[in-house]
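User: tokens in, sequence out, please.
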């Protein structure tokens, strides 16, 4: 909010141009050997997220699946933000209770006083210094799997197993390009031609995914992996947001039988549905993207109760957690 109480939002659509995401993130890593100066240390770091953001939602899911809740604390920003980005408006007094800051940008500026890029979530903050360590969301979840193993819960799944890594990486690359980021290339397209191209690429990839998942329960191997987490957060937002708001409207997810069953299977798996907040998702996209939705009106639909309906994917076999176990219920 600005001083006069009016919300000022960033612009997301560049006229006559296709949408290009800036993917140059803060690449500092938290590792077991502390090579970048930030060693794995329980209680030292705070993962800052918003349940609205698909990239942040991945880290929430992986943290829960691996049982890292006690090792890495969680700070939650509200679902809406102004052009200065994410705020801790859900917390008493509008301050994160651990970092004691009103905006995640304060942690960015604590490390980079002239930080010139977007202030994004997820971000991991070094609590003692109050400075951001990284916002490199693809690497964050991989490092949760590989670098924080000492603090995984008993029965934690192998989300990035060594023998499947190359295939997971290949699947993740095309899913990111065509689906995870593809919906944004539709929604933030600045020309008809760029929208048409992104739309065609998105649905061609969704058709490819439907074929891939028709006879196997998970994207790679017979257990949940990093690849499933990355696809799920986009599918969860498809009908509430991307179908209408981003004009990804060839079909709803609920009209694509294989992907709809696959998404419900994951949603009903501990760690996925209980890490998903549809109210935050809808509020964020429809209220923040004012150049796409000038009125800021949030639609009442769709009815989301159908996420709990039977999916039948058990018949394909597979073991969600491999030789591990499900995380304990929340609460």
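Assistant: Sequence out:
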């Amino acid at each position: 909010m600005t001083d006069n109480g009016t919300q000022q939002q960033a612009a997301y659509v560049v006229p006559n141009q296709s949408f290009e995401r800036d993917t140059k993130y803060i690449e500092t890593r938290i590792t077991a050997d502390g090579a970048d100066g930030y060693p794995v240390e329980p209680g030292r770091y705070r993962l800052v997220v918003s349940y609205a953001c698909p990239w942040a939602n991945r880290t929430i899911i992986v943290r829960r699946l691996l049982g890292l809740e006690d090792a890495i604390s969680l700070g939650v920003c509200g679902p809406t933000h102004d052009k200065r980005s994410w705020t801790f408006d859900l917390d008493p007094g509008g301050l994160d209770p651990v970092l004691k800051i009103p905006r995640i940008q304060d942690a960015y500026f604590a490390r980079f006083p002239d930080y010139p890029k977007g202030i994004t979530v997820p971000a991991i903050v070094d609590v003692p210094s109050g400075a951001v360590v990284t916002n490199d969301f693809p690497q964050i979840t991989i490092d949760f799997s590989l670098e924080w193993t000492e603090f995984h819960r008993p029965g934690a799944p192998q989300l990035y197993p060594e023998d499947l890594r190359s295939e997971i990486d290949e699947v993740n690359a095309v899913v990111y390009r065509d689906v995870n980021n593809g919906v944004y290339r539709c929604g933030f397209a600045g020309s008809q031609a760029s929208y048409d191209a992104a739309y065609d690429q998105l649905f061609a990839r969704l058709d490819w995914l439907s074929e891939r998942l028709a006879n196997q329960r998970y994207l790679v191997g017979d257990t949940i992996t990093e690849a499933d987490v990355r696809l799920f957060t986009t599918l969860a937002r498809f009908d509430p947001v991307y179908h209408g708001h981003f004009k990804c409207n060839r079909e709803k997810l609920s009209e694509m039988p294989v992907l709809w069953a696959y998404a419900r299977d994951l949603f009903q798996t501990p760690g996925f549905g209980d890490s998903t907040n549809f109210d935050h998702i809808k509020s964020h996209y429809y209220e923040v993207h004012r150049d796409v939705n000038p009125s800021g009106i949030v639609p009442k639909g769709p009815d989301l109760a159908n996420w709990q309906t039977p999916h039948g994917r058990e018949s394909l076999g597979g073991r969600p957690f491999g030789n591990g176990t499900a995380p304990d219920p929340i609460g």
